[in-house]
Design a protein that fits this description.
By secondary structure, the chain is α/β, with parallel strands linked by helices. It is built from 11 helices and 14 strands. The longest helix has 16 residues. Bound molecules: adenosine-5'-triphosphate.
């Protein structure tokens, strides 16, 4: 549904995106993850036909982004990261405005507006002024406007930014609903936990380079080469830390906040089950007492940290 072939963008002398190759299949919810300034919005704005590529090309729903921008706009519902609303406009008028822009007929428009208001749980706000809505409501309204022309592809730039926890949960639930409706969704975020449980695939971008992408399970499997072991020391933590530091398979060591009588650390080890068993034996033989030695499943945050440290390619 979405492809990029060698897409790159320079702003003057500054290279914001180097060269991205990407394919997102129909029905995927693709999480585009990266820190501020990584190049997410630049890539998204290109796919939404709002920005010209310096290099490369892309397609959305089979339409060439640069060759057939009108075809792309018909296929895409785009939600920018900073969206404005118009003063003195009511909720239904805002949606009607976009429906007219998509040349949807008057009778059809009314039904469509009713449907998207209901889907986004905004029916009770139908006649409210847009600029009087809370941030969460405005965000939801903006999502509603991406749906008026029933596009197969949604491109959402940080749709949950600035929302309170409840509103974030609502956005996630909506994404799941939209996925069930068969939409292909590209959603960007720099908040990893936000995307962890609603994406089917992810891409990690940093400084204009797509470091890794693929189905979320396979991304987790790839970083599984590096094991993350959470250890809670009861006593002997100094000896424990020095054993960990001198283990040649240690890749990183992070001290977590613990209680006064325990010290918690996460050791990232490039090892297998045998290596972990030997480490545990060594710690015990040195008199280190532990409350737990837990080989934990990676989180999306772990994936991100591992990939951006260049430990996985
Ligand atoms: N119009 C522009 N002119 C010059 N530089 C730009 C322009 N737009 C973006 N940049 C720069 O390009 C880089 C990528 O920006 P982009 O907005 O794509 O990042 P992002 O990953 O979306 O970050 P954020 O999460 O902060 O929106 C940044 O260094 C940014 O300052």
């Amino acid at each position: 549904m979405i492809t990029l072939r060698g897409f790159g963008k320079d702003y003057g002398d500054f290279c914001a995106v180097e060269s991205i190759d990407l394919q997102i299949d129909a029905g995927e919810v693709f999480g585009f993850i990266g820190p501020n300034g990584a190049g997410k919005s630049t890539t998204i704005r290109f796919l939404a036909t709002l920005l010209r590529a310096t290099r490369g090309s892309g397609t959305v729903a089979g339409c060439d982004v640069m060759g057939d921008p009108v075809g792309v706009r018909q296929a895409v519902g785009y939600m920018p990261d900073n969206f404005g609303v118009y003063d003195g406009m009511r909720v239904w008028e805002f949606l009607d405005f976009f429906a007219v822009a998509y040349r949807i007929g008057r009778t059809e428009r009314k039904q469509i507006i009713d449907n998207v208001l209901e889907l986004l749980d905004l029916t009770h706000k139908r006649s409210d002024f847009v600029n009087g809505l809370s941030r969460g409501m405005k965000q939801r309204l903006c999502l509603a406007k991406t749906l008026v022309h029933d596009p197969p592809v949604l491109i959402l730039d940080e749709p949950a930014s600035g929302l309170d926890p409840r509103a974030r949960v609502e956005v996630k639930a909506l994404l799941k609903e939209l996925r069930k409706m068969g939409k292909t969704i590209l959603i960007s975020s720099h908040i990893l936990t936000e995307l962890a449980d609603c994406c089917t695939s992810i891409g990690i971008i940093e400084r204009g380079q797509l470091l890794m992408h693929g189905p979320i399970d396979s991304v987790y499997r790839q970083i599984r080469r590096n094991r993350l072991v959470e250890i809670q020391f009861v006593s002997g933590e100094e000896a424990g830390m020095s054993i960990l530091r001198s283990t040649d398979t240690l890749r990183s060591l992070e001290v977590l906040p613990g209680t006064s009588d325990t010290k918690r650390v996460v050791a990232e080890m490039e090892t297998d089950d045998e290596g972990l068993a030997v480490l545990m034996e060594t710690l015990i033989a040195a008199g280190v007492r532990m409350k737990s030695f837990n080989d934990r499943d990676p989180t999306l945050e772990d994936v991100f940290m591992t990939v951006t440290k260049g430990l996985v390619s």
